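Dear all,

This email documents one entry for the complex benchmark we are building for the journal club exercise. For each entry we list the sequence lines for every component of the assembly. Then comes the predicted three-dimensional structure of the complex as a token string, followed by one or two observations. Please use this as the template for your own entries, and keep the labels exactly as they appear.
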Amino acid sequence: MTGTQLKLKTGLADMLKGGAIMDVTNAEQAKIAEDAGAVSVMALERVPSDIRKDGGVARMSSIDMIEEIIRTVSIPVMAKVRIGHFVEAQILQAMGVDFIDESEVLTPADEEHHIDKQAFDVPFVCGCRNLGEALRRIGEGAALIRTKGEAGSGNIVEAVRHLRSVTGHMRKLTVMGHEELMAEAKNLGAPFELVSMVARDGKLPVPNFAAGGVATPADAALCMQLGAETVFVGSGIFKSEDPATRAAAIVKAVTHYQDPKALVEISRGLGGAMPGLDVATMDEKDLLQTRGW
Amino acid sequence: MSKGVGVLALQGDYAEHQRMLARLDCPSTQIRKASQLASIRALILPGGESTTMLKFMQEEDLLEPLREFYEGGGAFYGTCAGAILLARTVTGPSQPSLGFMNIDVERNAYGRQVDSHESFEPCPELGDERLPMIFIRAPIITSLGADVVTLARHRDEAVLVRERRILVSTFHPELSTDTRVHRYFLEEVA
């Protein structure tokens, strides 16, 4: 990947900072999200909580639906492909989708290999549960990392776990001696160059967003205070009682995340949040976050 | 004490602008509320999503205070989304704007993200070396008022323009390592 390509890819991710990216399943929802102030929409056929409920194979969304969303909104449009399914990605790039999410929410197409993202002009976002996973995806060419959380759970606990894991490990790297970094790269299963870069800068070489389980403005502000630069909101909006109001509130919470008084006003009169799941009692096989490595 | 420089921090790459200012030894403040405008003399409107920033400005009653700030002698530098917010009229699709600068802009005029690109163009005002220009889903300035001065062009379009106390670029100097546009804003415009 050339320096220019990298700048253009991470550049778009930079433009999305301090915002909320919302899952939408049709053009009408995309319009609601844009009007609420979303910086981008993620087009998918079913929100994660429905994918979880319905079971079966979850694939890239229908072309017609994505095209209708592209025609409807002026903000960037993202769409998901199955892990390893590089042809779905080729199709989305050819359609003019602005960002591709190689996502654990869909059923993986390849259990060993993720997509070679350097081969594409369109930027990719990938999920991670820890620093090693984040750096492997960046090594493959991801221009943006999001912590996975547990999609469709309405429970923030996994997003917090993954964010703390990534930021905590980065802090550790910054105080390590240079001679320790190769062993640490081996432990992390991550490229040495990227490990050295994080040790030097104390942060990822690409933006770091949070996802998975955001249901309230407070959840969004929590992710931001824990070091996320933007939040993805999936089922949390369109599975709540009043999507338009909640969407606008989450957008504001991301900007005013350090201002508890503002968060009081933002959190007023939102109606009911989506119902949540207790991740701790869930069966390992029902977890989405363990997909990909 | 002279007033400082602010970066509008509602959304977008405001941290990258602050990093550029820091490299020029210019401290800066993140601006999120109207009350903070009293402490600054110049404001940068960063790149990001103009629809998102506009919604904040409308809902949090920032439009009028920003007008008062401008009429009271405040200077502006807008990049990309910031340029859209400062323009007189906006198309593609049309949306309201602050309208302080006598330019018309069309949003996402080069196309989608796959059409984002980098270029190096001459800008005599800022020295002999060409200026790196990173265009990300960038707008195009479709017409300029008589008092608007073009400082640099790309593909025959004006991409860095100035009108009195307002500087606008449709590209993102803050994503490069070249500090000349920010220096020009601080020394010549603000």
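Observations: Chain A has a mean pLDDT of 95. Strands of chain A lie at 20-24, 40-43, 77-82, 99-103, 124-128, 144-147, 208-210, 231-233.
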